[in-house]
Design a protein that fits this description.
The chain has 203 residues and is of the alpha+beta class. The chain is built from 4 helices and 6 strands, in the order H-E-E-E-H-E-E-E-H-H.
């Protein structure tokens, strides 16, 4: 068994122990722990669960270009261990459409337990091909057709596709749910950054 020291708080003369001191001591330990773990563990990651893979949970650590796949029960384990705290939880909800060999999902992005719209997302999926490289031309052509159709409505904005470099995350050309998780992580990071910059402008 390892050695253990048991300590007690000795208040200064004329003072008593109180919950504020406990809070201050806890914050001090947390700040030391954060400094010690800064090198070893990422402070932030994006956790993603996908409708098409309900038993899986994906961790995207953008700074280190890593994606990890785990069973969905990992969320419960992490909550019980209190190893990470959820700062922002977003829900993507909407509708699915079939257009020939294409499947579209259009939805809104809202924080969990809120109805405040944070963004609009669209998934375009070409069902016959699973090679990222081979699908580029037809996906690009469909995207152009889609942009043209939306342009006729004079909407104040447009969809943007920012293509991650999947090889940086160790992903191959064969498309998987991990590719989807990396794309959602990019979108979420962009939305969080936009919200934070908007908040800074207001302050």
């Amino acid at each position: 068994m390892p050695i253990k020291w048991v300590l007690h708080w000795q208040p200064n003369a004329g003072t008593t122990a109180n919950s504020q001191i406990v809070s201050e001591v806890s914050q001090c330990v947390e700040s030391i722990n954060e400094q010690a773990n800064a090198v070893e563990f990422p402070r932030d990651f994006l956790g993603i669960s996908l409708q098409e893979q309900p038993n899986k949970y994906y961790f995207v650590i953008r700074g280190q270009r890593m994606i990890l796949e785990a069973e969905s029960s990992i969320q419960t384990i992490m909550e019980k261990l209190q190893s990470y705290k959820t700062r922002v939880a977003l829900n993507f909800e909407g509708f699915q459409y079939q257009l020939g060999d294409f499947q579209l999902r259009v939805g809104k992005v809202v924080p969990i337990h809120s109805e405040n719209l944070r963004g609009i997302v669209m998934e375009m999926e070409y069902l016959p091909i699973s090679s990222w490289e081979k699908s580029h031309q037809i996906m690009g052509e469909f995207f152009d057709i889609w942009q043209e159709a939306l342009g006729k409505r004079s909407l104040p904005g447009h969809f943007v596709h920012i293509e991650p470099i999947f090889s940086e995350f160790g992903l191959s050309d064969q498309y998987t749910s991990q590719h989807t998780a990396v794309q959602y992580a990019s979108i979420m990071a962009q939305m969080i950054a936009t919200a934070q910059s908007a908040q800074a402008v207001r302050n």
